[in-house]
Amino acid sequence: MARNAYSPIWAGLLTSLLGACGLWAGAVGIFGSARAIRIGWLLPLAGVQLGLDPLGGFFMALTGAVAVIVGLYTIGYARRQRLGPVPLAVLPAFVAAMLLVPAAESITTFLLAWELMAVASLVLVLAHHPRPEVRSAALLYAVMTQLGFAAILVGLMVLSAAGGADRFADLHRIPQGARTTVFLLTLAGFGSKAGLVPLHAWLPRAHPEAPSPVSALMSAAMINFGVYGICRFDLQLLGPGPRWWGLVLMAVGGVSALYGVMQASVATDLKRLLAYSTTENLGLITLALGGATLFAAMGASGPAAVATAAAMLHLVAHAAFKSLGFLAAGSVLAATGLRDLDRLGGLARRMPATTTLFGVAALGASGLPLGAGFASEWLLVQSLIHTARVHSAVLALTTPLAVGAVALTAGLGVAAMVKAFGIGFLARPRSDQAADAQEVPPTMLAAMAIAAAACLTLAVAPAVIAPALHQVVAALPAARAIGFDSLGAVVRLPGMAGSIAPGVIAAGVVAATVVAATLTLWRRSRRPTPATLPLWACGADELTARMQYTATSFAEPLQRVFDDVLRPDTDIEVTHTAESQYLADRIIYRTSIVDAIEERCYTPVIRAVGAAADLARRAHTGSVHLYLAYGALGVLIVLMVAR
In what helix (H) or strand (E) does residue 416 lie, and over which residues does it extend? Predict the structure, then answer.
């Protein structure tokens, strides 16, 4: 009994310790010369080869930082939600597997670490497996993960065969045909892990059903390795790529950002909303990497360096505000047992600390000034609009479309976060669970406070990560021509006109707030003492929760605007009175929005696979003679094809 009571502490401490080790090792890889390690006996023939360079160290340090926060949060969360021994034991293993991925120095080691990471995350998604929703989400995640791994496996086999080597450092002079094949296969495999459209279907299903610490690790750390794979293999080992590579990345990123934020703006499940926000932000990062590839191929070195820096900076910002968002959502779930925004509300009084911390995360995800994502999105827009000096019809067509996609994404992102924060935490509670909520334990609040401090630091002084950002940007071929080392107190664009000072903006906002508050207090002091009277509420006795917006009603105008994309299923049921058919006794309005891509692309395939499985099941009669005949027929077909 005592061991069970202390297991959350040990699991959380071990997770944080692994994260701290990853943070230290990542820093050594970024700024120092990490020594390569080879363990020959662990894998036949190839062995395990580990090492770190600035690119791998950057992703390792980012993963370690998230793990430190999640480990501390898990100590209180596991006790509150009663996580079993299996997820508590697998959580540190999941972190260790993720730290191995950027440390791999060979294709064999990379594939081994990638599969360990996938299996560990699947076990954690199944932590609450008795519920059918969890089993369904885990099944979809398992299928998508293995299909993505198959694409990565084939792509890296082609790369290894074309380069005649297994170590990354020995892969040189890859033929153009092999480069194209590897790019398309790895983009599909790594894009699936990053949650890019149309391979995103697992993400809004698995993230909400996993325990909240796991959701934070998956969305703020594991998802990043999809970007790492694209950077490592497509942009570094095979790069700089041709123009059409950049156009493909920009198209996939722009569509993912727009589709993800549209779904987030109408989602009523808090964790599902955050999951779609992950697709949105990873789409922006992919768009920035595609822009860097295109600009470098067109000779626009300055915009290429700025776009690369924007992608890397947004990775850090997304890890900060998304981990905080999922941890705050986990606190709400632990306190109320609810994820439905339509049933929440009133948490600002019951859970003031969690409300404030989620507000910091929402501000960061909105991309507004004083938010963690503002500087990176500003850099992305600047890289897109400073390509006018390069006279090219391709850039003249693509950059305005990309700017419009980023602008629309930012606007809808603000609407989604206003809905999540305003409907979920403010106004009046819309359920007994929300009305009776209590603040979460101190360990959970401390972990969220650390993430919030990281968000505020990135918003006000992004220069704190300037040295690391300079090293990782220089590691990518698209940004080597002009180094990006102007991320100081004033962010300056290399070779271009434009600068911004986030700290000055923050100081101006704080000063304006202080002046406004002072003037308000001064004016109130000069007024006569106000009388306290009942609030007029249109003839009603008092305000109730039925008089305020719900998440569904808040998103209804946006749902109408994007009706052709979202394809909502709406039903209105009217019950008339017995006396007259012209008088309505009750009106029931139902609306549901499913993922249109999942419904139209995945559902038919799943049905076809199920039908094929039924046909195959009929062939399995249990007769050994029939199975021998199947084998003989298969051998005959192989011999005929070989002949």
Answer: helix 393-425
Neighbouring CB atoms inside 10 A of 268's CB total: 24
Domain membership flag for residue 618 = yes
Q: What pLDDT score was predicted for residue 1?
A: 38
Identify the helix (H) or strand (E) that includes residue 6.
helix 2-31
CA neighbor of 158 nearest in space, from 131, 180, 136 = 180
184 CB-near residues (< 8 Å, 6+ apart): 155
Of 550, 637, 628, 598, nearest to 201 by C-alpha is 598
Contact indicator for 310, 367 with CB cutoff of 8 Å: no
- pLDDT at residue number 31: 87
Cα separation of 321 and 63, whole Å?
14
SS3 269: strand
CB 101 within 8 A of CB 113: yes
Note whether residue 635 is domain-resident: yes
Contacts with 512 (C-beta within 8 Å, 6 or more apart), sequence order: none
Distance CA 428, CA 604 (A): 43
H or E stretch at 38 = strand 37-39
Range 143-152 burial, b when 16+ CB lie within 10 A, else e: ebbeebbebb
Low-confidence residues in the chain, pLDDT < 70: 1-6, 34, 40-41, 43, 45, 129, 388-390, 481-489, 495, 534-542, 643
| DSSP calls for 506-547 | HHHHHHHHHHHHHHHHHHHHHSPPPPP-PPP-TT-SS--GGG
| CA contacts within 13 A on the Cβ side of 621 | 9
Helix (H) or strand (E) run with residue 570 in it: strand 569-576
CB 483 within 8 A of CB 474: yes
- Nearest Cα to 274, choosing from 315, 311, 201, 219? 219
In this prediction, residue 331 carries a pLDDT of 92
Q: Which two tokens stand for residue 10?
A: 């040990």
Q: What does the block give as tokens for 586?
A: 């009750």
Question: Looking at residue 81, what is its pLDDT?
Answer: 75
Return the structure tokens found at 67. Answer: 């793990």
Task: State which residues form the domain around 637.
Answer: 600-642
How many structural domains are present in the chain?
A: 1
Task: Decide if 275 is inside a domain.
Answer: no
Residue-wise DSSP of 79-139: HHHT--HHHHHHHHHHHHHHHHTTTB-BHHHHHHHHHHHHHHHHHHHGGGTTSHHHHHHHH
The answer as to whether 612 is a domain residue is: yes
CA distance 40 to 57: 23
Given a contact cutoff of 8 angstroms between Cβ atoms, the answer to whether 117 and 94 are in contact is: yes
Tell me the pTM.
0.89
